[in-house]
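User: Teach me something about this protein's shape.
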Amino acid sequence: MITNRLRWIWPFAAAATLVVAPAGCSTLSPAPPAEVPSGDPGRGAQLINQYGCGSCHTVPGVKGADGLVGPPLTKFGSRSYIAGELVNSGPNLQRWIEHPQEIEPGNAMPDLSVSPEDARDIAAYLFTLD
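Assistant: First, the predicted structure itself:
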């Protein structure tokens, strides 16, 4: 009796495996996190390198981003606050990346003239760091 059930279930289980397996093997950029739904995390990682963020911060997944001036950005997506001031949300992080001196004048993070689009993608990458 068990053998008959397995014969009936097997084709469906095999089909489900074929449908699900390729998604786990995808080489595309990860989906944007909910906090930054229109962001591109893959591009954000490249921008972190381009803007030189790694000269001050340690950023997991970004080659050469091992700075010790600013705080490490490990597990950034799990943090409650940005710079001890702002609730950690997509819009707040984008604002911080664009205008850190407006939010907290005199802090050590320079204003790098990051565009809104670049800030969005950098934020999307940082929220993938859980």
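Now, about its shape. The beta strands are 81-82, 86-87. The longest strand covers residues 81-82. If you'd like, I can walk through any region in more detail.
User: That's plenty for now, thanks!
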